[in-house]
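Supplementary Note 3. Input sequence used for the single-chain structure prediction.
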Amino acid sequence: METQHVNVRYMVSDVQQSVDWYTKHLGFSLLSNAAPAFADVERGALRVLLSGEKSSAGRPMPDGARPTPGGWNRFELVVEDIDAEVEKLRASGLKFRNDIVRGPGGAQILLEDPSGNVIELFEPKKH
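The predicted structure, written as discrete structure tokens, is reproduced below.
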């Protein structure tokens, strides 16, 4: 049986910069690259479609609104040691929207890609 992917589309400002960022910092592998319009990367069953303004997803809506990067929707990557992961990513100059938040289910932090799209890093509470 073929592996099923969960697909997430992010609008990005620079497709090649985004490919480099996801593969270097978060362990994604490149599937295809048609920069500057589109590329897709994968990590396990997660496939992220990186769409630039030249992609079909970047075309204006009927009312003229243009899809843009950013916002608050996100996917979550589970990590074993959030403190170590954040330290490593900060040392690489990556941008976070907040500090680590700890709650009853674990700890989380919001990381931004180069276009301002959010990735949540989450460490589940150890029982």
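The mean pLDDT is 95. The chain is about 15% helix and 40% strand.
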